[in-house]
Every structure is written in structure tokens, then in C-alpha cells.
Predict the structure.
Amino acid sequence: MSTKLKMLVVAPHPDDEILGAGGTIARFSAAGGEVTVLTVAAHMPPLYHESVHERTVAEARLAHAAVGVSQSIFLDFPAVCIGQTPLHEFNGAIHRAIDQVAPHIVLSPFPDRHVDHRAVFEGVMVATRPIGTGRDIKLLAAYETISETHWNAPHLEPNFTPNWCVDISSTIETKMQAMACYASQVHPFPQPRSMEALRALALFRGSQAGFGFGEGFHILRMTAGAEQFIA
Amino acid sequence: MSTKLKMLVVAPHPDDEILGAGGTIARFSAAGGEVTVLTVAAHMPPLYHESVHERTVAEARLAHAAVGVSQSIFLDFPAVCIGQTPLHEFNGAIHRAIDQVAPHIVLSPFPDRHVDHRAVFEGVMVATRPIGTGRDIKLLAAYETISETHWNAPHLEPNFTPNWCVDISSTIETKMQAMACYASQVHPFPQPRSMEALRALALFRGSQAGFGFGEGFHILRMTAGAEQFIA
Amino acid sequence: MSTKLKMLVVAPHPDDEILGAGGTIARFSAAGGEVTVLTVAAHMPPLYHESVHERTVAEARLAHAAVGVSQSIFLDFPAVCIGQTPLHEFNGAIHRAIDQVAPHIVLSPFPDRHVDHRAVFEGVMVATRPIGTGRDIKLLAAYETISETHWNAPHLEPNFTPNWCVDISSTIETKMQAMACYASQVHPFPQPRSMEALRALALFRGSQAGFGFGEGFHILRMTAGAEQFIA
Amino acid sequence: MSTKLKMLVVAPHPDDEILGAGGTIARFSAAGGEVTVLTVAAHMPPLYHESVHERTVAEARLAHAAVGVSQSIFLDFPAVCIGQTPLHEFNGAIHRAIDQVAPHIVLSPFPDRHVDHRAVFEGVMVATRPIGTGRDIKLLAAYETISETHWNAPHLEPNFTPNWCVDISSTIETKMQAMACYASQVHPFPQPRSMEALRALALFRGSQAGFGFGEGFHILRMTAGAEQFIA
Amino acid sequence: MSTKLKMLVVAPHPDDEILGAGGTIARFSAAGGEVTVLTVAAHMPPLYHESVHERTVAEARLAHAAVGVSQSIFLDFPAVCIGQTPLHEFNGAIHRAIDQVAPHIVLSPFPDRHVDHRAVFEGVMVATRPIGTGRDIKLLAAYETISETHWNAPHLEPNFTPNWCVDISSTIETKMQAMACYASQVHPFPQPRSMEALRALALFRGSQAGFGFGEGFHILRMTAGAEQFIA
Amino acid sequence: MSTKLKMLVVAPHPDDEILGAGGTIARFSAAGGEVTVLTVAAHMPPLYHESVHERTVAEARLAHAAVGVSQSIFLDFPAVCIGQTPLHEFNGAIHRAIDQVAPHIVLSPFPDRHVDHRAVFEGVMVATRPIGTGRDIKLLAAYETISETHWNAPHLEPNFTPNWCVDISSTIETKMQAMACYASQVHPFPQPRSMEALRALALFRGSQAGFGFGEGFHILRMTAGAEQFIA
């Protein structure tokens, strides 16, 4: 792999990047790729105490280290209150971050039950249009976030069906360890955001694609040539 | 629960009824419900040796006993060769079986990658139209079959998104034991039809609906009144 | 039926609950079920005169009595101006009301042409996630509102196709009487919100499901076990 | 209206043309348009007695006269057994009939629960491709057939949502009289193919589009210029 | 064609009306139809310098003259900042303009990547409901805007598939000349909004429908009778 | 690029591989990739004269040479008569060919208006399931065939929306030359299968993705890791 291959993972909140793409990030960074995580919203006032903010950022840094993230950017919009920022300002902040990273691969949240996920998805879609920086993006895809993504209304709102599955059999344990760093965000089984549910989803996605553990994505735009794959 | 509540599970091939609804059947029969499994096709000549047919039927009887099935009907159409029977004869055979059972609840396969699943789905849809026997069906739903159902083409063919999830936390082990009866149909992990993948799917479906293990269904028609539920 | 079975019908404006589910409510309450109607928005200033508000609330009370509603809650957000309330406050108000009722069955408006219907649908979807109170909801479904629901853009926005039809042959006249209580909201035929159109829709929905008159719903999540139906 | 405007209505079986488009035909012929009905399948052996065939054709002629049909063509494929004819022969027969009529407007059945409707839809789609005769077709649309069309699986198979509604307030009684000619095909209310259900559907479709009674269609291709409408 | 036939084309920004419907407008006006263009947003402060506003309005007037527009209305909402106007005010402004024109045909933007296109689409959908003025609209359709419309997320957001194609072989050069009037909005090939891309799209749309050059539309509601076409 | 990277393009009839993927093939082979074209059906008796068969195969060999195809396999099923072969035999023939090639990338026709395209799509989907040979396929996608693919019924049948666009600016002329080899299959403009329409589609697809000329695909399954791209 070229040492210059760069991937940007956009997380609405700390933990989404690991839930959706932790294994893919770990495999990518292990192969020499450069990963940036752009965290857009924060668990901060007015809806959260500042201490929650500090804790989740600290957890994020540990989790990012676990999967080999090179750069962590935090935009610090207050969670659930994004709608109170003018749209062009919010989208502009995402746009500038993407332009600065100039990635080849971008992973976005899926537009789902959580309103922040939809706002960030929209911002990413605008910022990655195939003009300017966007022309150099080879692959743009949306990852799933356990619970939120699968709580979209069946047959009314977009329902997640992966067309890209990455074999994370070699990095599933790394993903689980990274998730464990988010102690404040993990809940005990049988709650939906449990370690058990996360592992089960990975095993199920693997079974769809012919390997042990996997992460599923919805491809939004790919422009790589057929010869730009490594056999 | 009324002792008269009857459920019919239509299986294209032996094992589909356990893969898709084994936990729901076990919970239903444990509560006093009467379950019939209608197995439509068989692993028989010309594509399979007769010994495979005998073995899978024997496995089916064990599996059915494990989950509390009352009646097992085998129509014995040769697998993958259903298209060579005139459509009205094939559909007629399914129709007669459904009329004979006169069920309140019908579980159908999902129309997926396996051509037999689509043929059986079509036969069930015709037989359960809301005329004649069909008028007494309170609930008609399609279950998922691990691997086949998730191999429909993303965004081109119907992709399974459950709108009905049954909590099978109390019967997950019974389901797994019933599946183990189908020794000839189970493959070792990481193959898609493994015990591990089946359990992972159940855990994932549970996480979508707020409990430990679940089975997901796509509701095709429900006519129960709102007061015909038990709190 | 258990005397404890509770149903919550969420109405964006007074009359939506009768248009969409009047017959189902009447049948449910007649069987001993307890029904709460949560009316979210009101025809109040700045877009409506306060007298309109008073009149429609008075009509609502009459209509609710006609179909056997036990409890009527009015949140009094100004119609068409919901977007001016911060999202987490608006959703929070719906959430608290649902938590207070702790229903087994929830009926939501369909996300359609009327912007308030979409806002309320979103609020209900967030409040009924399968965590906390949401875990006890056995059935969550969206009803149709004549005219608004069928004015969604064909093939661009979600188009209503019922997968649950309730036989309201025994309560169609009660539904019509309840609708007649909303004298200010009913228009003469051939206007879309006429008594004639409402009755025709019920007859058409009935014909889809094999009985005389019906109400159609789009199921969003069902978690009842198969044995939790009454034959 | 030009005296040369020609419309072709393709009916899988006798009565579908009235169920789906009787009011539109009557309005069109009253204005001087020329209507051909092409009936593809017949209620004939092996599944029906020849006397049924004769009766339904006689009923068709009466119904066609009632709505002003100019020409009635019967292809006489045996109902439900179309699959036993090689596809290119079946499609070829439809193609030749369409070429002979050279219509400006073509109304096709919707691909629904009845397998013959899907076969005929496919034949019409092939025959009307925008090459040869097909280039002169200004409008191609699919009509709904009460019951069959609304028995497609919700959210799995195509669900009918009209984007074209014709005001048949002036011809609703003519449509009902034409349907009454099909005495052998009409069932008493509350059966789905009742006169009451047919009228209710027309009233509901009217309410969607702002008039009293309507017929709904799904447009498959329109090529008229914006100036080729009459105000 | 009746001299009274009136068409309204709603453009979010100057140039959308030509990109999406320039050839159809030119053909319609050449046949004697009366065309109004309603331009909703403007390239004005705070995001654009006032000189950009003046320039694009001047370009619009030239372009409108080229295709035979009778009336040009500019609502002057600041581009990308529409969300800061209360929804009922924004929708009300569109509503009043439509009521004033009282058109038979309305062409709307498609709800796509550009947030203004979605806001205007919503406003048009509300204003054209089949009540009041909306009852006289015979045809309501959405046009495509090169680049923006085709940047909707595949299989997640509505993807443009035309069901109405107008043959603009006779007006393609007029369309291209009108587009050339928007010198500030046209970019050199291979940028997406190039003259070459615009012509290629027209040729491709023509090929879908059997003629040389075409414009594609998504029909939202048609209520013309079948006899209200000109052969 | 690894010299071992292998791509298989499955063509229902001679010319589909060039129409859909000629530029992508040329770019891939120029970079050292190995391309096999599997042509499934032939323009042969009973519907075509044997001389047509010979001519189209000869044209195919020229076209394949033009874009750098390494291996050409012809299965010689009679066009439009595939339905007369038992399904498991037809699918088996495709399966064996794919197993023999053992490709990393497979390009399939899109399931569209031409019944042979749907049969071949189905055969490819079965043969490439992620078991056995299928597990080594990194990318499976469907290409569009001008005219046929865009004649699927809008909003009823799958409508082509690309999520993968390959920049063929460097090979567009090679593609056009290869297409010119199919003299018997090309029609003069403004017919749909003209050189002009093919070039226009390429330019339009390019404009969607930010480059001059492109080919669009619908991804069916990708399993490459994020690091298996070349920057």
C-alpha cells in the first residue's frame, strides 16, 4: 500500500468511529495507512456537564491510540443542539476539516435515528461533492452505529444494507479493546450498546460476506479504477 | 393464550423453519400454541441422492420435536427444480395444505437469493390472500434465512429489514439445539451457516428491539385488533 | 383482554386521532382497553385566533368521549411553528408524556405533507426507542390522515402502504360520529376531508384485508410474541 | 380533441379494463377518442369450463359498449397457464396487437399478485419500448385492479401509488354500469371485488387529487410536450 | 394549443430553470404558451456580494428572453440562508406567487443535494396541494439540475429517474444559448456544470425516450384527462 | 498493480461488455490486468439466422482485441430462449465458467428490460455467493446497457443509479472504437443505441463524479480492505 493513503473517519460523537469502523481503521493503520478521526459534536453543555465532555474526549484519545489513529480533530459542537448553528456555518466547519486532511477515503455516519448523525451526514455529503477536494476522494461510504442506525423506521426511512464488507477477523479484538476504552458509553448486555451486541454484529456482517468478522458499509461514491485494487 | 391458536411455518427446505423461527416456535408451543411445519421442497433426485432426502427428513423430525412442533407436512417437490412443475399445480399444493391447517399465524420464507424461497413465498402469498381461509389469518410474516436472505442484491432486490422482533431469550438454547439436529446442514464457523452466525444474528436482532436474543420478521399483513394482544 | 392493556394515540392536531384510528380506538375501548390521546399542536396564535383553539379542544373532548378515550393530554405547541422550539425541548415534551402513560401500543402520525406530522413522528420515534419505557411497547405503528398522508410526493417521499388493517366494521358508525364532532374540521364532499372520503377510505382499506370497513397502519416495531395474540 | 387520438387498454382478463380504467375510457370516448381493449387471457380450459369463457366474453362486449370502446381484441391465452407459452411467442402476440392499433396512449395492468398481470405487464413493457411503434406513444401508464393490485407484499413488491388521477366524476355511473355487465365477476359486499369497494376506491382516489371520483394510474413513460395539453 | 395555457417554472436560483427545463420552456412558448419563472433565492448577502446578485439577475433576464419567458418574478431570499426564515413565511411567499399566476403546469426543482432545492420543493408541494388554486393544476413535475440532482446519495436519498421526457430536439440550441447567458454560472468542461455536460444529459435523456435530445422530469401529480392531450 | 489481478465481465449478448464497461476494461488491461469476457447468449437460431451468430462473434473478437481482453468465452445459449433451459443447468454453466476464471472483480449486467439480462444477472448472483470461489471476489458490480437498462419501469423496477464511477477519460476513444467493431449492433443517431448516445452517457456519468468521461456501476458486494486501494 502506498504510504500516502489517507482515510478520514467522521464521528458525530466520540465512540461512533469505533462502533462503525474500528476494525477497518485498525487494519488500515496496521498496513501503513494514515487515519484522521474528525469528531463533530461533544457531550458538553447545555445538555451535558463539562466533566462528561472531558471524560469522553479522554476516552476517545485512548480508543484512537488503540486502533492506530494518527490525528484526532474535535469540532466541539454541543450534542443535540447542532440545529441552533446556522447550517452554512456548521457545514463549513466540516468542509474546512475535510479540505485540510485531503483524504482518499472518507467514512461518514449513516443518516439515522440520531438527529446529529443526519446533520453530520449532510455536512459530509456537501463537503465531499466531486468538485475541489472532493475530486480526489476515491471512496466515500457510510458506516453503521449499533442501535441508532437500526432504529430508523422500517420501510419509511433509509434502512442500512451493506454493499461493502471489510474482513476484520484480524482486528476484531483490537476493535473490542478500543471500544472498551469508552467505558462511559458501553452498557451491559442485553442493552443495545453492549460489547456482546457489537461483537455479534461483526460476526453477522462477516457471515454475509464469507468471513469470520466484518464491518459493513453503504458505499456513497467510489471512483477508483478497477486496476486500483490490490489483489 | 387460547388453546386453539394455530401457527403454520412454511419451510422451503428442511432447516429453514429453525433458522428463521425456531425460537418463536419454541416460545409459542411452550405457551400452548399448536404449530405445523409445511416443508415444501426436498433434497431429493435429480439433484440430490435419495439418501440425503431420508437424512434431512429424519433430522427435521428431531428438530421439530425439539421446538414442540405438533404436525410436520412434507410436500416433496425436488429442490431447485420447482420451476418444472406448472405454477398452478405448485401453488395449488401449498394452498391445499394451508386450507387444511387453517392457521391464525403464517410464517413464510423471505423472497431471497434461493429460487425455491421465491417460489414458496409466491405460493404462500397467493394462498393467503384475504379471501376464503385467508380471511382468518391474523398475522402473516416472512422470516429471514441466514446467508440466503442476506445475499439479495443490495438496493436492487428486497433487503430484509425486520418490523417484528420476538424476544427469544428464553428459547435461544432450544433453538440452537434444534439447529444442531440438522447436522447435515450446519457448517463450521466461519462459514455462513454456522451455529456461531445463527447465535450472533439472534443477539443482533435482540439488540435492535431492546432484549437479549431475538428473531426478526417482515410483516406482510396483520389483521388482529389492537385489543387482541395480551399485555 | 387484560384490563391493563393501554394504548396511546399521538395526534399532531385535534382530529388526526379520529381520522386515522377512530374505529380502532372505539373497538379497543369497547373491549376494555385504556386509551390516551396526546394532542401535540394546537390551532392557536400566532397563526390562528385563540377562539379556534378553544373550539377545536372542545370538539376534541366530544370526539374522544364518542370513541371511549380515557385521558386527553394537550401539549399546546402552536401549529406550523413547531420548528421554532429547540428540537430537544419539543422531543422532550413528547417523551415525558409517553413515559407517563407507559403504553403497550402507540399509534403515531405518518410523516407526510404536513410539517407538524413529520415533527411529531420524529418525536415519537425518539421517545419510543427500545430503551427505558420503550422496551415495554409491544406495538408501534403509524396511521394515515386523509389528504395529508396521500399528498406525499409519489416515489420520492414515503408513500403509505398498510401492513396492518383493523376490521372496524363494528365501529365505523362510531368513528363517523366522532368525526362529526369536529364540525370545524370537516368539509363538504368533494373536498378531501369530507365524511364521504373518510368512509370511502375505510371501505377501501377493508377491501384490501377481507372485511367491510378497516383502518390501515404502517407497523414501525412489534415485539409481541406469537402466542400473545388472542385467536 | 383531435378525432384521431387513440387509446389502447390492455386487460389481462375480461373486467380488468373496467375495474382499472372504466371511467377514463368513458370520458375519453365521450370526447371523441378511439378506444381499443386488448384482452390477453381468457377464463378457458384447462382451468375453466368453456362456458365460462363464452360468458365472460359476452359480458365484456356489453361492458365495452357501455363505456364506448370501438374495438375489442381477444388473444385467448388460457388464464394462469401463460407461463407454458414460450415467452417470445406470448410477448410477440401482444407486440403485434399494439403495432396494429398504433395507439397514442396505452394503459397496462400493474404488476401485482396475479401472475397473469405480471406477464402482461412485461409483454406491454417490451412492446412499447421507444423504438418503432413505441416512439409514437405519448403516454404509457399502469392502472390498478381492486384486490389483486393491493395484495402485493407491502414494502417488498411494488406498491401502487398513483401519480396520475383522472377526474371521473362525470362518468362514475357509467363505470359502475359497465362493471355491472360483468355479473359473473362481481361479488357482494364485503367481498373485495364488490361494487361498493369499486366505488369507494374511486371516491378515495378523487379525494387524493381534489375532485369527487377518480381513477389512479402509475405513469411509466410520458413524452407529450408541455404544450400538448388542453387547458 | 389554447392561448391560455400557463406554465410556472420555480427556480431555487437563477439558472436552474434553464438547466432543468430550458428546452421545454422554449418549445412551450414557441407554441403560444405563457411561461412565468419564479426565482426564489438570490446570490446576495450575507454569503454573496450584492454585485453577484445584480449580475445573476441580469443574466436571468437575458436567458428568460432567449426561451420566451413572459414574466420573471424574483423573491430574493438569501441563498443557503433560507432556513433562517420561519417556514410558514417562506412557504407563504411561494404560495402567494403560485396563486397569483394560477398556472396549469408547474415545474419544481427536485429535492437534492442543495438544501435550497429541498426547501423550495417543500414550498411548492405545500402550495400546490389539490385544494384551492392547486385544483386547477393539470401537471406538476420536478426537473433535474445537473450536478446537484445527481449528487443525492445513491439508494439513501431520492434518486432521479424520469417518467416524463420532452423531445427538445427542436429547441436544444435555444436552450444552450439561454444557458450561455448565465456566463457566471457556467464552468469549462470537464467541470460538472459545463455546456458539454448539459448537452450530453439532453442527448442521454433523448435516447431513453426515443428521440434526439430530451429533458427528463419526475411527475408529482397529473390530473389531465386522457382526452386532454393533443395527438 | 499486481500482475495477477483478474477481472471477469459477463455479457448477456455480444456488445453488452463494451456498452457497459469498455472504457473500464481498456484502462484495466492497459495497467496490466487480465480480462475475461464471458458471453452467455448468442444471436442464433431459432430467433436469428446462424449467419448473424457468426457475424456477431467475429465482431466480438475484434472489439475484445481493441480493449485488451485476454480471453473470450462464448456459452452460446440461444438469445431470448434461455427460459427453455432448466434453471440449474443454465446457472450451472455460468457457475463453472466463473469458477474456472477465479476472478477478483466481476462485472455483471444490470437486471433490466431485456429478459436475458435478468437471467444472466441471476446466474451471476448465484455463482458469486460468498462461498467457495465467491469468497475471493473483491468486487462485484453491475454495469448499465444503454437503452435496455434505462427502459426499466420508473419506480416499479430497479432503476440504475451508479455508486461507482470509473474515469475513462483516457480510454473513451478506445471504447468508441471497440463499439464501432460491432457494426451490426450500432444504429444511427437519434436511435438509442447510437455512438452519440453512448458518448453522451459517458460524458454525463463523468459529470456526476467530477471528471470528463465515466462509466457507472451499481456495486453488489465489495470486500476489499480500505488499505487495498492504490492512492
